[in-house]
Design brief:
By secondary structure, the chain is α+β, with helices and mostly antiparallel strands. It is 21% helix and 24% strand. The protein has helices at residues 137-141, 154-159, 161-167, 210-223, 240-254, 268-273, 288-298, 304-312, 332-335, 371-390, 427-430, 432-447; strands spanning 2-4, 12-16, 19-25, 32-38, 46-49, 52-54, 57-63, 70-76, 79-81, 89-90, 107-109, 132-135, 171-174, 178-180, 195-200, 227-232, 258-261, 281-284, 396-398, 470-473, 488-493, 504-509, 515-518, 526-533, 537-544, 550-553, 557-565. Helix 7 packs across helix 8 (304-312). It starts with a strand and ends with a strand.
Amino acid sequence: MKEIQGQPLPLGVTIMNEKVNFSVEVPKGKTCRLLLYHAGEEKPCAEFEFKEALGTVRYLALQELETEEYEYNYQIDNHIVIDPYVKGLAGRETWGKEKELQKHEIRGRICGESYDWEGDRPLNLPANEVIAYSLHVRGFTKHPSSKTADRGTFAGVIEKIPYLKELGVNQIHCMPVYEFDECGRRRNYWGYGEAYFFAPKSAYAASGDGVKELKTLVKECHRAGIEVVLEMPFTQDTSKLMILECLRYYCMEYHIDGFILNPFHSPMDVLRSDPVLKNCKLMIHDLGFQTVMRRFLKGDEGMVTDVIYWLRHIPKQEGTCNYIANHSGFTLNDLVSYDGRHNEMNGENNQDGPEYNYSWNCGAEGPTRKKAVVDLRDRQMRNAVMLVMLAQGTPCLLAGDEFCNTQKGNNNVYCQDNPVGWIDWTRIEKHGAFFSFVKSIIRLRKKYPVFMPGEEMTGMSYSNKGVPDVSYHGENAWRVPAEVSSRQLGVYYSGDEKRGEIPCYVAYNMHWLSHSFALPALPKDYGWYRVASTQEGVLEQGEYLKNQRSVEVKERTIIVIAGMKNEKH
């Protein structure tokens, strides 16, 4: 190999035709050397001193360097330093390697291998057509019950793609998949904190090659019509330049469809205006929908006005999803099974994790055999799924919620790399009826376009019939039940006949008493048909309502009624 003139940007290692460029930021007054290692060896085989500098950037380039045969680090003064922009790491292929690593044991890979994308491109699914699903790559398949050959890896997720298609989701949200240090005073299971953001985690790869395996996951998901969104929280010390370059890199190199970002750490305006990221989904977590719908679900008073907003709200720029449970907090099953957090296993005296969960145990704390409590919990989980899937924004399920996965009341499993934090797939057999219900409600959302409009409805009329696109009702038609004591709401979506949309009415009764809901009048020759409910899921065939003016809705129940052309009865 031969040293030649390099260039300061881009930072990191860049393969340019016949040369490999190395660029790193070094504090003023410090020396810097490039250390090269034969792949797999822990002692350097060659060293090069950085002589060129621009500002605080040192750079050089090498010719005739066989990239697959070498790995690298930097030596700044007397310290061995891993490149902050490293694209892949060697030495971290094994998850949870507890022993103290020697200074040369972790090395940067020079990633230049070609990858056959077979014509793959990001899917660019419209936001209103997305059904999202949030998962942890390791925890999704690590449990023995996952029955995957490569548990806890990108390959394990690939094995579950047929399952994801059966469920009906078309976008997965992956918790951090970059190189973070999981070993510390407590296991860093989630992966938040300092990390090498450009490098996919090699311990998440069955082959040990995180770069190739993440690309294969993306390609196979795209082949199945599923987008891949990465959670990239970064840290408060991450520079805006690094954030921008990192997201660009994943878009270009990995065909990633979107990112979930921490808006306090990421320059959202800059990212949204960047031409490379223009078609990329830039998202943030928002607790607004979750908090309101959890309180409505358990029967808090004074929630109707906020519920109306979140049922209708479609963010134009925030890029948020509607979820009632996510990784930070209770699972859906635990939301209806525990009044308080039970994080004793975390070793922080149960002081960590959200204190306010807006949960309700339905009459018993934790597991119970009381039939009344078990039945109520099942009904409340079904209501929760319908609240998420029938709202107008993009819905998102937490992995395992579709078959009542539990974390035993732990609402902060950041350190639980064990069955508490993993998905228990045996529960799909125990809760098969609920799993079937969730699939049916996802199909319902897709069947009726009024539940997934491209733009937020305004309550104004856009048809010649003079009927608003969305309106709100209660025991009296056209009157919002906005009293503080009200725990029920009827929502009428009139639909656009020109677009083939069927009008639908959803009656939400979160009260512990039954209520009658007045039904708006339909056009001539049309009638109201019950098509879904909390108890039944989606009916195979709509059931004509004998009373076309009102409908009785049992306590803690949601029903969906569609306006269809009358048949003879």
